[in-house]
């Protein structure tokens, strides 16, 4: 079986969809629907936007992938959605940024982070890390865990024992951004720019997918097509590129927009889910792709038939013991084959209260959303039935006086780490990674021997909005624009 | 009367003292004590470091000028003092950075800023302002008050009515940094970099003055010498510079370190406290000096024989009504001649709890420290006896349940705005000011026709630590170093 088109988009996530949407709907487009094709490996569109509207037993829907508009001051996708009326901040958005109520693995009662003057300590620690690499970006990288120790050693006299125990571990909330354990997080690139409040998307991020699909004929989107091989530089039935799928489908085209995740791009071509390039990608590009990693942020949602936690709170952080055995040492990913739960609960846990009185609530019970990070994500996603056993000790701390912790009536987890087409959550930087090269190479900010008609898009190619919906969306639009300017 | 020296330092504040200290104590100095002279206009040394150890009726001492080590991550003066044992953070310093307890002029009960998701709104507002000028520093400046209105208009839908009323005015805490009313604060330069936690200096900042004076022979410091005229470029008894004082004293020298405050430098030469330069300073330098202003941060300390506020709190912010008459309109500085208190209390008030349980406490009563800004500073400093009448309505909100507000047994205020040699607090940027020129001109980062043996120091010349002790201190050291390298 073979198909032909002027432009082929590989990947039906938000970057691929925004690319094909622009290709067909730009006011000056010379392309007709039959000129473009999109190949999606899986059985749904949206990629890491995935709104689950069916699993809930209490009438809710959940975004198992992206669920916040980040960087709301500068987020052009958000601004566009507000402008065209598809997203209304007051009705469809929620700010979930009260200071988290903080607990600690070793304590039953909440930690008064403000009373401990903790917020300024955390700000100072973040600034310390920034300074450490600011003067000389060439300084040897180290883990977030290690640089935190350095700070504590250096400012020993400015920290109380209580701050060391109950405030410093709060920095591990970064694990819930990156999906990595703090012993793996690059200190050099750990700082997260604040570009405006995050807006929790209450209507489900699939609205954005649906909005794009309205203007893209369904027959241009071919599902279940895992791309196995991309050939470039010879004549393929009059085209410059040939794309071969696992199904046997061959697509010839003149322009390719490659949006598969970095986690797939970085696989060896011999891998079951890897892609073989003929000729091989230049080694500078290969190296750039390998110079970042994929985090494994996951989601675990517990539904309960009653609410036994504080509905005033937006979120909770449960800090790990500093000295206790750590999930890192007793990595559940290494032992999940025998389905045992790690002996001691000691990872950092970020919990969002999906039943806060900030949300419009049914009276049908409540839900807690846990953001999981590596290695817990693999454990939970591979064994959702063990999730409650794993989290119960930590979550029990959240119970309000007089309320009894009840077992959940439903457990819903994401599956990103187990999904062979996704393989994690999004780009995240491990120790000694370098985020600049992949951008420079894939966005051609440096000379490249990859033919110019091979375009790359996706969150991993974005400088602004890296890892975010708007970064992915805009990267797709940019590549579409380039093709529109060059294909006339 | 006349004196002669190789180097003359004008001004005995911390920058002048650090300059003369370095000149005499640098290990390679070619200068003997008789080679240097320092002229101080007032009857004490330290300038805007002024520790009052005598006024308290409850056994305390107060820094009426500088009282925090700012930027503690990068503050080299702090680091040096820790290293040489003159300052011990644990014993001599206090962190006063719990989130302030917030009140509002229109409400009796405290405002729950976190409950209103206020901290992230304030962060977003600050980021909005930063962004506004980041792309194009040439954008027309406006007041902090005006840009806040712009933000509120633009993000109308992302703000609740409560946030607009009770969170947005919190941004006026900046008035207590700058000593200016928010209708005067430059939006363009309103952002304050966080470079580590501020450390309240419990031992009194005069320790730093005393430390320097130990190594400077007293006879090299001439008090009560207000400089009136500086002549440069001819031969003055074999020297290159002649300095004339109001007392009639004439000093000839080869190098001049000019450390008088910007508020004095910027006076016309005809002014009673102005300085006449012969020849005149180049117009580029004159313009640069006029392109910044002096804030009028003041301090007002109330001592009480009992404590009726919450000793758990480090500080309080009492927010002004948005719509009520504002101190700006009924400027007390304009009416203080008849000693009336402004009709309605409506300025922003920052209060530090000098009796917090964070401090080592005598049992002799307690004290509250108010940071005042323009125009209230002039009012309070000129009429300390009216201070309680002015602040009582606001401060009464701080009383804990069951405690009665009592009148103070003592009122101590700073006098900076009334002191003709100081004329305010420190450099602050009003709308359309530009902080770059004064640095470039006075630190000779651009070609200057001022002879190189005329050096400028003081907080107003510092890029890092502008307005701070460490900025002033280091600027004095730098000029001393330059002279040491050039006078051999």
From TrEMBL, chains A, B:
Top EC class for this record: oxidoreductase
UniProt keyword Flavoprotein present: yes
Its EC number(s): 1.4.3.-
Residues at which FAD binds: 15, 40-41, 227
Keywords carried by this UniProt record: FAD, Flavoprotein, Oxidoreductase
GO molecular function, one term: oxidoreductase activity
Known cofactor(s): FAD
Residue intervals of the Amine oxidase domain: 14-481
Any Pfam family: Amino_oxidase
InterPro entries: Amino_oxidase, FAD/NAD-bd_sf, Flavin_amine_oxidase, Flavin_monoamine_oxidase
Family: Belongs to the flavin monoamine oxidase family.
Name of the protein described by the UniProt record: Amine oxidase
Species for this entry: Pichia sorbitophila (strain ATCC MYA-4447 / BCRC 22081 / CBS 7064 / NBRC 10061 / NRRL Y-12695)
Higher taxonomy: Eukaryota, Fungi, Dikarya, Ascomycota, Saccharomycotina
């Amino acid at each position: 079986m073979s198909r032909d088109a002027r432009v082929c988009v590989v990947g039906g996530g938000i970057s691929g969809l925004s690319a094909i949407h622009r290709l067909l709907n730009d006011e000056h487009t010379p392309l007709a629907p039959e000129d473009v094709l999109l190949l999606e490996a899986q059985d749904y569109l949206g990629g890491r936007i995935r709104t689950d509207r069916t699993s809930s037993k209490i009438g809710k829907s959940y975004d198992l992938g992206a669920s916040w508009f980040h960087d709301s001051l500068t987020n052009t996708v958000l601004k566009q959605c507000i402008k065209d009326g598809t997203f209304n901040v007051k009705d469809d958005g929620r700010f979930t940024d009260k200071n988290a109520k903080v607990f600690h693995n070793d304590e039953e009662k909440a930690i008064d982070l403000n009373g401990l003057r903790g917020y300024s300590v955390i700000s100072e620690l973040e600034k310390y890390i920034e300074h450490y690499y600011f003067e000389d970006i060439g300084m040897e990288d180290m883990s977030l865990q290690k640089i935190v120790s350095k700070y504590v050693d250096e400012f020993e006299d400015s920290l109380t024992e209580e701050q060391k125990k109950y405030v410093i571990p709060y920095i591990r909330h970064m694990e819930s951004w990156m999906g990595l354990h703090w012993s793996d997080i690059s200190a050099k690139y750990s700082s997260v720019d604040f570009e405006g409040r995050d807006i929790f998307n209450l209507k489900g991020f699939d609205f954005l997918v649906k909005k794009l699909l309205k203007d893209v004929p369904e027959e241009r989107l071919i599902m279940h097509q895992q791309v196995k091989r991309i050939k470039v530089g010879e004549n393929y039935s009059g085209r410059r590129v040939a794309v071969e799928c696992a199904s046997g489908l061959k697509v010839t085209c003149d322009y390719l927009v490659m949006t598969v995740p970095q986690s797939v791009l970085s696989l060896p071509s011999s891998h079951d889910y890897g892609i073989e390039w003929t000729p091989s990608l230049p080694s500078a590009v290969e190296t750039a792709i390998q110079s970042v990693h994929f985090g494994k942020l996951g989601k675990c949602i517990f539904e309960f038939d009653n609410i036994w936690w504080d509905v005033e709170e937006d979120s909770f952080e449960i800090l790990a013991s500093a000295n206790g055995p750590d999930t890192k040492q007793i990595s559940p990913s290494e032992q999940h084959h025998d389905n045992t739960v790690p002996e001691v609960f000691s990872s950092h846990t970020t919990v969002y209260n999906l039943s806060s009185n900030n949300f419009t609530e049914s009276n049908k019970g409540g839900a807690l959303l846990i953001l999981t990070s590596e290695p817990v994500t693999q454990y939970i996603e591979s064994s959702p039935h063990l999730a409650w056993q794993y989290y119960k000790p930590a979550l029990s701390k959240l119970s309000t006086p007089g309320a009894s912790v009840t077992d959940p009536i439903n457990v819903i987890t994401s599956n990103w780490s187990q999904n062979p087409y996704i393989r994690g959550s999004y780009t995240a930087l491990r120790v000694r990674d370098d985020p600049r090269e992949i951008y420079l190479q894939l966005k051609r900010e440096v000379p490249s021997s990859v033919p110019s008609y091979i375009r790359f898009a996706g969150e991993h190619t974005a400088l602004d909005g890296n890892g975010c919906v708007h970064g992915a969306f805009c990267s797709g639009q940019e590549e579409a624009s380039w093709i529109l300017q060059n294909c006339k």
